[in-house]
Amino acid sequence: MELKGTRKRRFSTGAYHMMLLPAVILVLIYSYGPIVGIVIAFQDFIPSNGWFNSEWIGFDNFKYVFGMPDTMQVIGNTLFISLLKMIVGIIFPLGLAILLNEVKNVVFKRTVQTVVYMPYFISWIILSGILIDILSPSGGIINNFLGLFGFEPIYFLGDGAWFRFVIVASHIWKELGFDTIVYLAAILSIDKSLYEAAALDGAGHIKQMWHITLPGMKPIIVLLSVLSLGNILNAGFDQVFNLYSPQVYSSADILDTYVFRIGMEQMQYGVATAVGLFKSFVSFIFICTSYLLAYKLANYRIF
What we know:
mainly alpha
C-alpha cells in the first residue's frame, strides 16, 4: 500500500512538472537564448557575415562607447530620472495610502482606488498620445488654462527641464494606484488593538499615524526602497521613447533609448550591444546588492 501511495505521489508530482514544461521552454527560447547574442559586443559585427565570420575586436566597442561625448551624459540622465522616480514613487503612494486609510466612507474610498488604479492598465503608447494632446503648446488644455492667467505657452515636451518633470509626473500618474494598494495592504496587517489602545490614551489620528501606522509600515517601505535599487538603470524605455524628440536628447536620452538609436538608427550593432551589456552588468551588481540589503534590513529573501 505504501509503495502504491509513493508511486501515486510521484505521478502527481510529475504531472505538475509537465505542466511547467511549456513555460520553461518559452523562457529558455526568449529569455536565455538571446544571451548568446552578447558575442556581438566583442565583434565588428556585419550582419551579412554573421557571428562566425565577423571580426573579433575584443573590448574595442566598449572603449569606443566610453570615448563618445554623449555616453556619460546619457548615464547621468538615466540615474537622475530613475532616482527621481524612486523617491516620488515612494512618497506619493505612501501618502495616498495613509490618507485613504483614514477615510471611513467605503464607497468614496473604493472609487478613489479605482480611479487612480485605471492608468496602470493603459499602455505608454496610449498614455503618450493623451499627454502629447493635453500638453500641446497650441491648444493643449494645460496651456489653455495657463493662458487664462496671462502665462506664455510652455513647450513641456520640447524643453529639457520641463520634460524631466513630465516624465516623473506621468510615471506617478500611471503607477500610483498599484503602489498604493501595496501600502494599503501593509496598513491592514497592522494590529488593530494598537489603534484602540492609542485611542483610549487620547491619541488623535495624527499621533496614531505617526506612532503606529508609519512604524508598522517601516519594513515594507525599507523593502520596496531597497529592491527598487535593482532597477536604477531602468528609467523607462517605453515612456521616454514615446514622448521624447531630438530637442530634448541632451536631458532625456537614457541608456535604453541610446542603445535603440545606436543599434537601429545608426546600425552600429556591436556598439549598441556593448552598451546593453554594460547596463546589464551594472544592473546585476545593483540587484545583488539590493537583495543583500533587503535581507539585512528587512529580513527578506527569495530562497
